[in-house]
Amino acid sequence: MSKSVLIMVTNADTIAGNKNKPTGVWLSEAAEPYIAFQGAGFKVDIASPKGGEVPIDPNSVENGNDDEKFTEVTKLLQNTPRIGDLVYENYDAIFLAGGHGAMFDFPGDADIQNIMAYFKDNGRVISAVCHGPAAFANAKTKDGKYLVDGIKLTAFTNEEEDGANLSEDMPFMLQTKLEENGAGFVKGAAGEENVVSSGNFVTGQNPASSQAVAEAVINRLR
């Protein structure tokens, strides 16, 4: 029986509501996993908190190198289903794509938190890359413990956020928040691939890690 993966993407199109700082999903962080999961024969859906059109961070398409390769995903992002309307029990894994937009609408989203708690309790794969782990911030399981307490993971680091000159614009520093929630944060070199697997979590540090996270999820599900 074919496995199913749900890729979650942001609807936030600006950083802290500043129209001069457009953001959204980092295209490769949704597209590379989508292509990898499809290539593995999995059923793949892409959904967002509000549904509808998903903004793409302009910085993630500046070079235009991957435009043709990512055409299918770009089209899907123009009209996504709402995460809360999906039957999440039908999926074997979730993948939380990054982009700075995720810092603004993933944390505290009730639908995403319910799904993550269910997946952790049932031993299903929870994967995320870059700012996707923002969804973990202050999320808890049914027993009241932080979702990532005792989990080794990685995400966009404080150093990388400082390097992007966006630390002051973030609602919180992602690395610091996850550490406060009890996660064992594994920091790799800035901008370089770093993937961490722990329990049923598979996480990647930055855009360079997207493909490797997807491959690690595929190996888990096979």
Mean pLDDT: 96
Query: Helix coverage percent of residues?
Result: 25-40%
**What's the main sheet like?**
6 strands, mixed
> How widely separated are the two ends?
11 Å
Order of strands across the biggest sheet? 4-1-5-6-10-9
Number of folding domains? 1
Structural class: alpha/beta
Radius of gyration: 16 Å
Number of discrete helical segments: 7
Specify the overall morphology: globular
Question: What is the level 1 CATH name?
Answer: Alpha Beta
Would you identify the regions where 5 or more consecutive residues have pLDDT less than 50? none
The H-and-E topology, N to C, reads as EEEHEHEHHEEHHEEEH
CATH architecture classification name:
3-Layer(aba) Sandwich
At the fourth level of CATH, the homologous superfamily is Class I glutamine amidotransferase (GATase) domain
Q: Can you count the beta strands?
A: 10
Fill in the CATH topology: Rossmann fold
The fraction of residues assigned to DSSP E strands is: 15-25%
